[in-house]
Amino acid sequence: MELSIPFNGGKIKLDLVVEDGVHHPGEAVIERLKSIEICGGESALDLGCGCGVYGLFAAKAGCREVTLTDVCPAAVSSALVNARLNGLQHVKCLQGDFFEPVTGQRFDIVFANLPQTPAPHPIQLDKWGGPEGTQYLTRLATEAPNYLKPGGSLYFCHTGLANPNAVNDLFSKAFDLKVVNQRDRFFQREEYESYQPGLFHYLMDLRKAGKAKFESNGEGWCFQTRFIRASKK
Ligand SMILES: C[S@@+](CC[C@H](N)C(=O)[O-])C[C@H]1O[C@@H](n2cnc3c(N)ncnc32)[C@H](O)[C@@H]1O
Question: How many Cβ atoms from other residues are within 10 Å of residue 15's Cβ?
Answer without folding.
Answer: 12
